Amino acid sequence: MKKILVLGAGHSTPYLISYLLDEAAVLGWQVTVADKNLDMAKMRIGGYSQGKALSLDINDIAMRTQLIREADIVINFLPPNFQYVVALECIQSNTHMITASYQDERMPDLDKEARRKGLLILNEMGLDPGIDHMSAMALIEKIKQRGGTVLAFRSYGSGLPAPESAANPLRYYITWNPRNVIMAGETGAQYLYKNKIKILPFHEVFQRTWNVSLEGIGKLEAYPNRDSLKYQSLFGLDKVHTMIRGTLRYPGWSETWLQIVRLGLPNEILKISDIGSYSYRDLVEMFLPLYAPGANLEHETANFLNISPTGKIMDNLKWLGLFSEDKIQTQGDTAADVLIDLLRRKLALPSTARDVVAIYHELEVGYSNRRERVVSTFIEYGDIGGYTGMAKTVGLPAAIAAKLVLTGKFKESGCLIPTNSAVYGPVLQELRGMGYAFKERSEVIG
Amino acid sequence: MKKILVLGAGHSTPYLISYLLDEAAVLGWQVTVADKNLDMAKMRIGGYSQGKALSLDINDIAMRTQLIREADIVINFLPPNFQYVVALECIQSNTHMITASYQDERMPDLDKEARRKGLLILNEMGLDPGIDHMSAMALIEKIKQRGGTVLAFRSYGSGLPAPESAANPLRYYITWNPRNVIMAGETGAQYLYKNKIKILPFHEVFQRTWNVSLEGIGKLEAYPNRDSLKYQSLFGLDKVHTMIRGTLRYPGWSETWLQIVRLGLPNEILKISDIGSYSYRDLVEMFLPLYAPGANLEHETANFLNISPTGKIMDNLKWLGLFSEDKIQTQGDTAADVLIDLLRRKLALPSTARDVVAIYHELEVGYSNRRERVVSTFIEYGDIGGYTGMAKTVGLPAAIAAKLVLTGKFKESGCLIPTNSAVYGPVLQELRGMGYAFKERSEVIG
Question: Cβ B264–A204 below 8 Å, yes or no?
């Protein structure tokens, strides 16, 4: 009997686990879901007899090692900082691993050993990263077969409120791990624009935005998403003058978040002891260099950041609760933890609202006699009161890949992301069969 | 026969290894030095028969595991990002570990398992961190025994050129792992000042400086060193209104480095492929948002950073070679790697120069009838043409601790830093015996 171990039972896992349990019933697998929150794990399993819920402190090395050793495959939906160590233990235990997170920069170090043991360590197997890579590769491959050369590659991904649901000042809801929203951009970003490499540190990422319009959703803003350059070789795009992966938000998000970054709040390293004894105002004050007792904190903050004390950004910071006199509520002990908790509460998806996930590829393609603009769009709405678009599209690729591994359909080994047709081909086919498909159009531009 | 494995053979290891080889000759130990650069490892071993030099790619998991398994103790002088995984494998292999690096934030996760197995995983066992913690604890303990209460704790550490040797525009030489100079401040900093917590993001750290004078060295500048707050409880300082750990440089370093950080160059994540095909000028241009062909790069950079195009900071950036038309020379592929290589060459310690390491504790102490200012200073000069002050003082605490572990003098287990008198007591005693001592003075201030 094949054993699947799912690590983590958060936002992105319900559809994934439900899919695996359905397959498990047919194929006779066992699915173990382990989370520090046992109730959460139990809820994901529901009444399925093939499912088992466990409470796991991921830092309990003995239990972690034991579970990984017993599993045939681990689907690791823990926060990204556990990717490397879980992969290392999977390789030590002869267990495959799949994640939906960006590949950790240390993962290539494990590639040789994974290959030697014939193990698949597959990362970036979600929506963005995941479906975006797979669909981009399929599109690029099709263009090459038609004799075209990709001259510019722009690709955008996002999870947003549906337009009619975008009812808060930031026009954003948390539908995935809020930690990843809070720490977005932390390692900076780089991309290629008109043959020039452009690199940004964290404190500049949300300053470098531009508009993108999506049909049915409207005018959005994009900011550069991590390292676009590394996908140039991974996607085989050696002739592009522009290579940009961007993240989409409704306009206004980035100008507000830029100031939160400049203030320094997205910090998950520095721990503040007894953080619950401070108010949100106290926390903001900690990030100001000088603060004369009696001064107006809102004005001092606006002055420090060089923004209007009465403008929209300041309104948004106030609306988020950063200037509240209430005591801080958080399970954690860093300023990032405070933001996570604030956003979780202020930006919770209302039960009457739905989300939408979107991937939008925009390519400039050269043929012998013309240039074309090729646009490929994937839009998936969540179901009000049911699965979010995010849960469906982040969880499904990992689940499908796990099935393909366990049924012997994948022969690949090593530390990979899904840019290989032997991986993305069957996964995209299965997704299409379930109704998840891209709409493509092209126009001659020169 | 006891086996010591030293991982890494860089700047900070020659004195450490020499000390261990001398002890090994007496006590019949074996010392293996493993580095990716075999010649470096061989040079450290010299002609000692108790020593063995090995070439090790730390990402060769099989060989790494084998070496750790065979050792009784690992002295890990690899870059800090390997601390966690080496510690994990030491615990799996029943091997003790000592490092001179700051304790990784994930280390407490390993504490339970280390205790269960009776293993000592001792971090921050160098100069700063290391001798600074141990001497601070000894001083605080003495003050408490005298009935004093520490009201303010300021502690500074640094490795600098000796005043007569500080002959370049930045008045700094690289005498330890340059990576740690380049990435200093990357996680931000926090401290307590007059009962207020102050927190800074990376892009503000080098902006928050103040002057400190050291006898024999002169006027220096300090910037806040990482997380000072966490040492408040580690040092048992529950009554302080001010708690600051700072790093010392000659004045002018921070105003220059601040701009390098604002530009975004200290980034070790984003890889630039074929980096050697670009010039240093090209690299700087990558960090500017806009650059019109033909514009003056120096002026555009100054404008972007809002600094004078003709001032001292710009002079320093030019002197470092950032505006050179030469092709980039580096073994690596990130902007941080380029800085490492530039600093290694531009800031190399001349053979006729010597360095100095300094630790300076400045405490305000309350007694029932008075307040005192207590100052404790440790200054150690390097030997021209011999060991640097840095190599002596960073390597020795780890070496002494290793000896104490192997000779059964330490009974402690778990993931520790040396704030425990059972650890710092014998180490300071041995250091004093070798002539490494603090000078202390105090004055009544109220």
Answer: yes
B272 and A CB contact within 8 Å: yes
Task: Judge: B227–A81 Cβ closer than 8 Å, yes or no.
Answer: no
Alpha-carbon distance A76 to nearest alpha carbon in chain B (angstroms): 18
* Residues of A (98-157) whose Cβ lies below 8 Å from B: 105-106, 109-110, 112-113
User: Mutation test of the interface with chain B: which of A84, A225, A270, choosing the one with the most B Cβ atoms within 10 A?
Assistant: A270
- Give residue A79's Cα distance to chain centre: 11
Mutant choice from B187, B199, B277 vs A, greatest count of A C-beta within 10 A: B199
pLDDT of residue B243: 98
Buried b (16+ CB within 10 A) or exposed e, A293-311: eeeeebebbbebbebeeee
Compute CA A436 distance to the chain's CA centroid, rounded to the nearest angstrom: 18
What Å distances lie between residue B240 and A297, B196, B197, B236, B444, CA to CA? 25, 11, 12, 10, 18
Determine which helix (DSSP H) or strand (DSSP E) holds A377, and give its type and residue range. strand A371-381
Positive or negative, the CA dihedral B360, B242, B138, B76 is: negative
Residues in chain B: 446
Question: What is the residue type of B79?
Answer: P
Whether the model pTM is above 0.80 = yes
Q: With CB atoms and an 8 Å threshold, state whether B197 touches A289.
A: no
Tens of pLDDT along B69-80?
999 999 999 988
Are A188 and B263 a contacting pair at CB < 8 A? no
Cis peptide before B224 (omega within 30 of 0): no
Contact A273 B233 (CB under 8 A): yes
In this predicted complex, what is the ipTM?
A: 0.92
How is B212-262 classified by DSSP, letter by letter?
EEETTTEEEEEEE-SBSTHHHHHTT-TT-SEEEEEEEE-TTHHHHHHHHHH
